Amino acid sequence: MIETAPLRPRAEAEAAALPPLLARAEHLAGAVLLGEHGRRRAGVGDDFWQYRPMQPGDSRRMIDWRRSAKSDTQFIKQREWQIAQSVMLWVDHAASMRFASNDDLPQKADRARLLALATAILLNRAGERVGLSGTDLPPRRGQVQITRLTEALTHEDEAAPDYGAPELRGMLPHSRALFLSDFMGPVEGVRAALTKAADRGIRGVVLQVLDPAEESFPYRGRTIFESIGGSLSHETLKASELRDRYLERLAERKAELQDLCAATGWHYGLHHTSDSAQSALLWLYSAFERGGAR
């Protein structure tokens, strides 16, 4: 099991290494912007931001009758403080995420947790509420929340299935989200989650985390392929003959994820555990800054 103490300092170190990334926000009235979904300036709560259609649960007192009179739809006039978005994280804890092709590389799970926590630290510093989907951690701000996230992320489930699918439990309508996984399992679960999220106005970022061996398929000769959880096994005498077919299916999976993200308004990214964690964190922050998927 990964210790809580080592994980958090490493994540904070990744976040602390980003002063150039925060420079743009500092130039914009000293605020930290997360694209078009967050507050434009820290401390400002009354500036008008946008109209949106009325939704179930909205009070009729919130209706802007002047704007609504121009169409058949009733509109709500939102102010900045009303749309400062919550960001929910989902980190795949399935057995497949425990794979590392050699001892010099981190497990996919370790890298995904590190990036998730570092992202949470950055968002928290920017005044955003951050939570963890599939747990009892609703979106909140503050250092106590970061500690709770750390504890939740370091918990491992030895009985986890081979492959996971994103959970929407705890995600608020019109919030933002970050999904981290290898996405090597059935794509139907991902499609269902992104479709439901889009229907609820949830936008976000999908980051596929892969080991470099999963990209290059360096196997030759007699090889036994087994899933980390042990439920799948395949033996071949000529592993190299599977390479082209495997790489084709991997390319198809990436294309499916990209198409799903494009159709639902999410951002798709790919990260290899052999690459710098800081570069992935920079990309994640930039993705949220571009709109966290509008």
Description:
The chain has 294 residues and is an alpha/beta fold. The protein folds into 2 domains: 220 residues, Rossmann fold, CATH 3.40.50; 38 residues, no CATH class. The chain is 37% helix and 18% strand. Helix 1 packs across helix 4, helix 4 packs across helix 9 and helix 6 packs parallel to helix 8. The longest helix has 22 residues. The protein is globular and about 70 Å long. This is DUF58 domain-containing protein.
Provide key terms for this protein.
9 helices, Rossmann fold, 294 residues, globular, two-stranded antiparallel ribbon, 37% helix, single chain
Sum up the overall morphology in one term: globular
Distance between the termini: 37 Å
* Rounded mean pLDDT score: 75
CATH class call of the largest domain:
Alpha Beta
H/I helix tally: 9
The structural domain count equals: 2
Arrangement of strands in the largest sheet:
5-4-3-6-7-10
Helix content: 25-40%
Give me the secondary-structure category: alpha/beta
Instruction: Give the tally of β-strands.
Output: 10
Q: Looking at CATH, which topology of the largest domain would you report?
A: Rossmann fold
Percent of residues in β-strands: 15-25%
> How large is the radius of gyration?
21 Å
Order of helices and strands: HHEHEEHEEHEHEHEEHEH
